[in-house]
Amino acid sequence: MREAYQSDLRHIVDDLLDMADMVGHALEDATTALLEGDLALAERVVTADPHIDARQVELDAKAVELLARQAPVATDLRLLVASLRMSSSLERMGDLAAHIALVARRTHPDAAVPAAHREQIARMSQLGLNALQGASEVIANRDLALAAQVEKQDDELDHLMLEISREISSGGQETYTNAEIIDLTLLIRFYERLGDHAVSLVRRIGFLVTGDSVDTLSEGVDVPEF
Amino acid sequence: MREAYQSDLRHIVDDLLDMADMVGHALEDATTALLEGDLALAERVVTADPHIDARQVELDAKAVELLARQAPVATDLRLLVASLRMSSSLERMGDLAAHIALVARRTHPDAAVPAAHREQIARMSQLGLNALQGASEVIANRDLALAAQVEKQDDELDHLMLEISREISSGGQETYTNAEIIDLTLLIRFYERLGDHAVSLVRRIGFLVTGDSVDTLSEGVDVPEF
């Protein structure tokens, strides 16, 4: 009985890792669709998002069922509550990847990202993906040294968002259409939010490992000022 | 003992209502600061946000403690899990109000919102506030008829976001600086997200009342396409 329970808890962690994997693929594909103007790929990311949502529904149902049936306390209770929160973060990250794909789809066949910013956007996507994969490892192995790295990647994401935003504001050599500015503003915010959610994931594991009494995580005003 | 427990559950609902009240004030003040260029008020909204965050931490700690001590099942368990999610939504709504105040602070003494869009932004704020107050009533009284109204207000918010976005894209009579377009894009997205969170609040109550077995709520790709 207790063994089955421990195995159920492990399954929940496995489900979180599966969700993170699905989100990672969505993010990678969304950025490829965006930068390569690949409409079919953008479509696939959008239509795959409900699968990520469905995984969250399943995971949460399992967690609530365990809460009801096992009345866990201490670490197990904290793990289940943290899992409910982490599944929300992952579901939201999936939405953000789908939003990126929607921008790619809407602007097709035009490029949503002006040539001058392609490298920056590719880098933002890579940082987001690294942060997500780092968060997965932290969830799997509770390796808090890696957690610091995820936070660092998020700082670089924030920095890139500000840099792009300032370049657009100052105009510089580039000229932008109004629609391009709207799209770029949304895109850099989507990538930046992906990084925030990755940070939120690793902080929840941090609370679990260090036994901090705060099960919750208030993320504060997390948008760096443009 | 059971009476104390029922009273603890009621306190959690009261805490949610308090949080909603704090968020409502923050939203109202943020929009006033934005449209009136009131720097001191913007500052107050930003510095008040940690109080909303702290309320979430307290509420969540109480909910987790009840989970541990009472091992609730059925409706009580569902209420606690839903409360953990609703407190997250409210905390995030507080952040969004603070983001609006940050835009007001950053652009001061210039107006962040061009004259042509002031009325639309004021309307978006009012719709967000109505949706939040509607959600509070739904939480307090479980009045699902009101829930439909909150969803309708959110539709109007989405519509206004698209309208402003299209007006900026098409240029029309207005000319915008690049920085103005960035700020407006962010602002309309902040208001739109506030509406999404209000919808999420009423849907959670809907699940509780109707006894839907799905405790979780997947919000899908919730950004209407620009």
Describe what you observe in this structure.
The structure is a homodimer of 226-residue chains. Chain A has one domain: Up-down Bundle (Methane Monooxygenase Hydroxylase, Chain G, domain 1). Chain A is mostly helical and 226 residues long. Chain A has helices spanning 2-36, 39-70, 74-107, 118-141, 144-170, 178-210. In chain A, 82% of the residues lie in helices and 0% in strands. In chain A, helix 2 (39-70) packs antiparallel against helix 3 (74-107) and helix 3 runs antiparallel to helix 6 (178-210). Chain A starts with a helix and ends in a 16-residue tail after the last helix. The model of chain A has no long low-confidence stretch (mean pLDDT 92). Chain A has six helices and no strands. The longest helix of chain A has 35 residues, at 2-36.
Q: What proportion of the residues of chain A form beta strands (DSSP E)?
A: under 5%
Number of domains of chain A: 1
Number of strands of chain A: 0
Relative helix content of chain A: over 70%
What is the name of the CATH architecture of chain A?
Up-down Bundle
Short characterization:
By secondary structure, the first copy, chain A, is an all-alpha fold. The first copy, chain A, has a single domain, classed as Phosphate transport system protein phou homolog 2, domain 2 (Methane Monooxygenase Hydroxylase, Chain G, domain 1), CATH 1.20.58.
